Amino acid sequence: MPGRGQPWKLGGGNPDRIGTKAIKDGSVTEADLDTALGLKVNSAGGHEILEEGASLPQRARLNFIGAGVVASDGIEDTTDITIAGGGGGGLDLPNLVDPNTDLYFYDEFFYPDPTNTFPHFEKSVSSINALNQAIGGVVQYSTTNVANNVGRVNICGAGMTVIGADKRFVMRCKIRQNVITTQALIVGFFPNQSNGPSGTFPFTTIPGAQNIYFRSNGSGNYLCETDDNVTPTSVDSGVAVDTVSHVFELDFDPTGPTLLWKIDGATVRTQTTDIPNASLAWYANNQTSEAVGKAVELDTIFIYNER
Fold it and tell me: Is 124 helix (H, G, I), strand (E, B) or coil?
């Protein structure tokens, strides 16, 4: 009888076949099979491939495409797929040797007690509640029951900034307002020594002269607005204000310069002039026109900035 690593044979039979007469039930393990037979045993079925939990048609081969994707033969009967990290859209991995080279900020807003545990942010709100206690949950922040009241969450306090708008930056924020006509929402970058937009509904006071933001004003469509301290701009996105969660994205390339405005992945404005280039903080402000508290649901925020 051959040892491990050698083919099992019955007389002059095929070297990659095991006969049932010479071996007792249960006495052969996978380690006893030669390479050719092992491949045949393991070829039945194949991987079940899922995309966001949904099964794809089962095929005989997998083809991995893209410079950031590497497929290799692993151990323990696995195929290892390595996908380079980063924010997508061609962004590089963080530089682990010099963490000051790039800034990456990402938060999924999972806080078991977000009223008392809300790290990374400042806030000025009447309440913050977790809507989903699972990982990747949503938090809801509300205004007080006062007309023209503003509730806000922001990254960086007075005198501090999160991005330099003269370098490549990306912002993606998934957010939802729960009413339209009596509520305004504003999300984006503003000067570092402010509490963000305020004034009477809908945000008649915009702080400073360097800002880049999306705004809803209680009706119509979302607006894409900037001020570079010379020429304020306001462009209609063509996307109607509603109570659905949207991903608002800003993608700035200084080599153009080009500032892309996107809602749910679709470009709604391409800006090449009058773009602010200051150091800015991030704000998400919510405002109500009546003496009733209004809430905004904040899902995720991602910010990347070259240094």
Answer: strand
pLDDT in tens, 242-273: 999 999 999 999 999 999 999 999 999 999 99
Q: Which two tokens stand for residue 198?
A: 């305020």
Q: Where are the domains positioned within the chain?
A: 102-306
Collapsing DSSP to helix, strand or coil, 37 comes out as helix
22 versus 110: the higher-pLDDT residue is 110
Which three-class secondary structure state does DSSP give residue 281?
A: strand
- The pLDDT tens digits of the residues spanning 44-64 come to 555 667 665 567 677 666 776
End-to-end CA distance of the chain: 67
| CATH number of 102-306, picked from 3.40.50.10420, 2.10.109.10, 1.10.8.50, 2.60.120.200 | 2.60.120.200
Q: What is the pTM of this model?
A: 0.68
* 14-27 pLDDT, tens digit each: 554 555 444 555 55
Element (H, E) at 305: strand 295-306
Q: Which residues contact 109 (CB under 8 A, 6 or more apart)?
A: 137, 138, 139, 298, 299, 300, 301
Instruction: Return the ∠ at Cα 170 (arms to 166 and 171), rounded to 5°.
Output: 120
pLDDT digits (tens, 9 = 90+) for 161-187: 899 999 999 999 999 999 999 999 999
| Cα 230 from Cα 251, distance rounded (Å) | 21
Residue with tokens 């991903």: 247
